[in-house]
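Sequence, please.
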C-alpha cells in the first residue's frame, strides 16, 4: 500500500485545476474469499457459528489485499493517470472535460472488474475536492475548516 504522505506529495506536484474522486462502495465486501480460506474466518456469536465469505473489515490484511486487487484491475484496464489509496481514487487535469473522461474510464474499468460504484461516492469534476481527509485546490492541500473548528473547540482534558 502506498504511503499517504507520498501520495500527498505526488498530488501536490500535479498542480491541477480540476479534480474528481471515486470511492468504491463496500470495497472489502466486493471481494469474495476463496472457499478454502473461509474456515479461517469463522466465528461464534450468541451460540451460532458464522463464516465470512467476503473480505472482512477489521482483518489486518484486508486493506492491503483490497488495494492490490483494485490496483491490478486498474492496471489491467489501462486506467488513466490517477492516485489510489485502498478504495479511494483521485484523478486530475486542466479541464473539467479531461477529468470527467478520466473518471468515466476508471469507473468503467472498476465496474467491469466487479466493483460497485455509487453515484453519491463520485465527486467532481471540481476546482476544490476532498481526498484522504484533506481539501485540494490548485495543487495545494488544506485541512478542511470544519476539522480545524472541531479541534479548536475542544476543551482540555487534563484540567
Amino acid at each position: 500500500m502506498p504511503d499517504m504522505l507520498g501520495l500527498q506529495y505526488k498530488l501536490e506536484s500535479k498542480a491541477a485545476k480540476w479534480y474528481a474522486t471515486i470511492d468504491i462502495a463496500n470495497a472489502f465486501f466486493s471481494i469474495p474469499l476463496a472457499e478454502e480460506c473461509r474456515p479461517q474466518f469463522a466465528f461464534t456469536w450468541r451460540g451460532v457459528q458464522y463464516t465470512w465469505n467476503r473480505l472482512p473489515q477489521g482483518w489486518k490484511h484486508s486493506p492491503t489485499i483490497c488495494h492490490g486487487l483494485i490496483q491490478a484491475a486498474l492496471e489491467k484496464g489501462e486506467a488513466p493517470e490517477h492516485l489510489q489509496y485502498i478504495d479511494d481514487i483521485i484523478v486530475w487535469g486542466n479541464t473539467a472535460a479531461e477529468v470527467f473522461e478520466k473518471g468515466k474510464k476508471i469507473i468503467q474499468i472498476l465496474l467491469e472488474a466487479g466493483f460497485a460504484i455509487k453515484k453519491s461516492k463520485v465527486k467532481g469534476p471540481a476546482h476544490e475536492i476532498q481526498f484522504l481527509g484533506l481539501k485540494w485546490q490548485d495543487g495545494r492541500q488544506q485541512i478542511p475548516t470544519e476539522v480545524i473548528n472541531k479541534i479548536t473547540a475542544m476543551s482540555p482534558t487534563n484540567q
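The domain at 4-153 is CATH 3.30.70.270 (Alpha-Beta Plaits).
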